[in-house]
Structures are given as C-alpha cells and as structure tokens.
Design brief:
By secondary structure, this protein is an alpha/beta fold. The chain is built from 9 helices and 11 strands. It has a domain of 185 residues: Rossmann fold. The strands form 2 sheets. Strands 3-2-1-4-5-11-10 form a 7-stranded mixed sheet, with helices on both faces. Strands 6-7-8-9 form a 4-stranded antiparallel sheet. Bound molecules: S-adenosylmethionine (SAM).
C-alpha cells in the first residue's frame, strides 16, 4: 500500500512538472497543456537520470550507437530534427553541432530534461527540450528527420509500437526520414554476461520468447555501482509490419556500425558485440 501511494505521488509529480514550452522565436508549433499518459512509470528514468548520463561515458555509446546513428543519418546540415526519448540531450547536442538547423528533444522524464536544459544553459547551442510521452505527442512541426534511440523497445505491444511510429510519421515532412537505434530483436535470449566487458549485460527469457517479454539491462559504472531497467521484446516481423502499416517506406535494419576511425586493436575489442549485436539501427522514409 505504501509503495502504491509512493508510486502515485511520483506520477503526480511527473505530471505537475510537465510541459516546458518551446521559446517564442522557435518554428516549432506552440503546445497546449494536455494530460499526459505515463506509459512506463516503473522504469523510473527520473531516478536514474544521472546514472544513465554517467553510463553514457562507456565507449560503446560513442563507438557504436552514436556512430551508427550518424552513419545512418548522413549529412545533418540544415535539417530540422525531432529527437524522441532524447534523455539528457547528448544526441541533440551532437546533431546540432553537426549542422542541424533546429533540434527539439522530447523525453518523458522531467529529470532527464532538467539535465538537458542545464547542459544547454552551460553551453548554449539552441536545442529546445520538452517533457512529454513520445507516444502521445501531437504534431510539433514538419521535421526533416525524426530520431529515436532506444525508444521503440519500450513498446510492450504492437499497439504501443504503432503509437510511437504514428507520432514519428505525423511529425515528418514528406520525404523526411525516421531513423534510430534499438534493442536488437534478432539478438538471442538468455543472460548475455559476455557483454559485461562493455559495461552492461542483457537478460531475457531464453526459450519460447513471446511478444512483450521483458529484457533486463544492467549497467556497471566505473565507481562500482550498478543499475538496471527493463525494455521489451517484439519480433522483427512486428516491427516491420508496424513500420509498413504506419505508411513508412524503404525500411532497413542498419548496422550496427563500428567507428571506422578506431585502431584495429580497439575494433577487435568489440568482437563479442559485433558477433551477436545486442543493439541495431533502423531507417525508413515518409513517402515524398
Ligand atoms: C535507455 S534511455 C535512451 C535515451 C537516449 N535516446 C540514448 O541515446 O541513450 C531511454 C530514455 O527513454 C525515455 N522514455 C521512455 N519511455 C518514453 C516515452 N514513452 N516517451 C518519451 N521518452 C521515453 C526515458 O525517460 C529515457 O530517457
């Protein structure tokens, strides 16, 4: 009972802290306060915002995830970008520095957005941020590019995945692209303890995996602490069907790609990751 009350309080606080309006001179559509659904409060990214920020110092984020994202995007110059599940804004800042003309980052966690905004305050780049559930976001503008790094794997059902995809679709201009990085649905189940050398492990049912089964990620930080959270498995077919049903074209699983500026010795360290990648990129297009 106490735990339930605590959870309700957390959710209420989340709702109260919601909605930071884009600034007036932004071309993003102005935004009305609306009741937000907290689709995944149990993951409680608020509580682990700083820890996740620290985890992103693990080389894997730069060497594979960021590299795959940038390779998949290509030239960012002049692009208007919407980053769904932007967490503390690292990718928003990277994309802005690579030439994106505008970047709006959206995340369900107010603590994550606080971190993003304090980075923006210390080094202003003109990135805008908004606390909102990415599955219920309205049309914020006509973006050239929508990015979702580790968001789609929070969908527990085909219906939830469709909501994320519809939000991406309606926010894209014709010919715009939806790209991202995700838990790899082709990755085999079980406990992947061999990944610990990269600073994390992944665990999901080994046999008879079903749609919506949880995948537990545990991160191991330099200071000896660790933290865990769940996302969810949906089959590659479910992903591919939903992308198509939403109206996207030219869908491709991408990579993952390993930073080609690394030395051979550095690249060799990713042997286990690359042999059975736990994460994978994707890209698709809204018809012109
Ligand atoms: C594993 S982190 C990934 C963040 C980031 N994109 C990255 O590159 O690492 C997951 C993020 O997704 C956010 N998130 C989870 N469900 C969400 C939802 N429905 N809408 C918006 N953000 C969500 C969490 O708050 C958290 O910041």
């Amino acid at each position: 009972m106490i735990i339930q009350k605590q959870k309700v309080l957390e959710i209420n606080n989340t709702i109260k802290k919601i909605i930071k309006l884009p600034q007036k001179n932004s071309s993003f559509k102005s935004f009305k306060l609306q009741k937000m659904q907290v689709s995944n409060p149990s993951n409680s990214f608020d509580e682990m915002a700083q820890k996740y920020k620290n985890a992103k110092e693990l080389p894997i984020f730069k060497d594979i995830i960021e590299f795959t994202m940038l390779q998949t995007i290509g030239d960012l110059k002049g692009l208007k970008v919407l980053d769904l599940a932007c967490d503390e804004g690292n990718n928003c800042r990277i994309m802005r520095k690579k030439g994106a003309s505008e970047v709006l980052g959206v995340d369900i966690s107010p603590e994550m957005i606080d971190l993003a905004e304090s980075s923006e305050k210390s080094i202003p780049l003109g990135c805008k941020y908004l606390v909102h559930d990415a599955s219920t976001l309205e049309k914020m503008g006509e973006f050239d590019l929508v990015v979702a790094i580790y968001l789609l794997n929070y969908a527990q059902t085909k219906g939830e995945l469709r909501k994320f995809c519809e939000v991406a679709y309606k926010n894209l201009k014709k010919g715009g692209r939806f790209i991202g990085f995700n838990d790899n649905p082709f990755h085999k189940g079980g406990l992947s303890s061999e990944l610990k050398k990269y600073g994390f492990t992944k665990e999901s049912p080994e046999i008879g995996r079903k749609e919506g089964d949880p995948i537990k990620y545990t991160f191991y930080l330099k200071d000896g602490s660790e933290f865990s959270f769940d996302d969810y498995w949906l089959s590659p077919k479910t992903y591919e069907d939903v992308f198509k049903e939403t109206g996207f074209e030219d869908f491709k699983w991408e990579g993952p790609f390993l930073d080609d500026s690394l030395t051979k010795e550095e690249r060799d360290k990713y042997d286990v990751y690359m042999a059975n990648p736990p994460g994978i990129g994707f890209s698709m297009k809204k018809m012109a």
